[in-house]
Specification:
Layout (H helix, E strand, L loop, with lengths): L3 E4 L3 H11 L1 E8 L2 E7 L24 E8 L7 E3 L6 E6 L1 H14 L6 H8 L1 E6 L25 E5 L3 E6 L2 H9 L5 E2 L4 H14 L9 H5 L7 H6 L7 H5 L6 E6 L5 E8 L20 H20 L9 H5 L6 H10 L2
Parallel strand pairs: 2-6, 6-7, 7-8
Antiparallel strand pairs: 1-9, 1-10, 2-3, 4-5, 4-12, 8-9, 11-12
Length: 340
Amino acid sequence: MANKSLKKDQLKNLLNKVAQNSQLIAPIQSDGITLFRPVKSGEGVVLEYQNSVMPPKDYFFPMSEKMFSYDTSDPSWAIKLEEGVPSRVLFGARPCDVKSILLLDKVFDAEFRDDLYLDKRNKTTIIALSCNECRHTCFCGAFGISPGEAEGADILMTDLGDRYLVEVLTEKGEKLAATCSDLLTDDDGSGAGAKEKAVAPAKEKQLNISIEGVKAKLDNMFDHPIWATESLRCMGCGTCTFVCPTCHCFDIVDFNNQSSVGYRYRCADSCQFGNFTRAAGGHQPRPSKTERIRQRFMHKLRYFVDRYGDTACVGCGRCLEKCPVNLDIAQIINKVKEVG
C-alpha cells in the first residue's frame, strides 16, 4: 500500500474513529507522567513525549491477570477460562517498544505457545510513532533499532511538522487504514525525505553504545568478579525489571479465600528477588545479589542470544533513569568490553 499523509488537525478525528470500532489504548498524562491507558476518544492523547514511564507491554503481558476460575463443589471440577480481550488498537508505541513485543513473541509464541498472550497479541493492531527526539538515556541504535523504523508495527506514523507520514506495513494496518480512508491522502513522494530529516535528531543524540563483542566476552565471564562488585550497589528492589519492556518473569498463585470457589492468576515477578528461584525444599541456586545481578545481565546479553538469536534489550533507557543506585545495562555493557 502506498504511503499516506494525515494532516495534523485530523489526528484527533482519526483516533475518534478508531475508538468507535475498537478499544483504543494510547499515551496520556496522569499526575505528570506518561502512561498507556484505554481511552474513549482522541481527547487527551499525548503526542509530545519521548517514552512512557511504563512500556505498553502490560497490554500483552499484564502485571497481574486471572487465568481461570474453579469451583471445587462442582462434581465435574470444571474450570472456567477467562474471556479474551476485545479488538484493540495500540496507538503511539515507540520503535523500541514495538521491537520489545517482537522479543516477547519469541518467548510466548515459540516451542510453548501461551494462549493468554497470543489472544491479546492477535487482537491488537499497533500504530507506532517514530521518534523525532530522544531522551538522554536512549540507546536503541546499539541494538539495530532505528527511531524511524518499527518492524512489528502495523502502521508507522512520523511527525513531519505540518502532517504525519503514514506508512501501512501489514494487512492489519491496511484494514485499519481503510476505515479511515476519508482522512488520509496519498503521500506526494516527499514523505520519505522529510522523514529522514525529522528523525535525525533522535539518531544523533542517542548514547554512543556498542554491543559488538559483548556476547563473546560474556561467554567466559560466568565467574568473573565484576558481578560481586556491581551487586554491592544493588538494592534488590526489582525496579529495573518492572519498567523493562522485555522482562517476562512471572509467578502463578491459586487463591480461594477458604471457600470452594477460587481462581488461578499469574503476576509479574523479578529475577532480582531473593525468593524467585527458591525451590520447595529450600534450595536456593541464587543465594545472593551477586548471582541475581549476573543472571539479569547474562540473560539479556548472552542467554537470550543463545536461545533466540537476539538480545533481550531494546535500549529504551528506562532502567537507566529509574534505578535508584544508577546500576544500568549501558554501564555493564561498557565495563564488560573493558574486561581484558
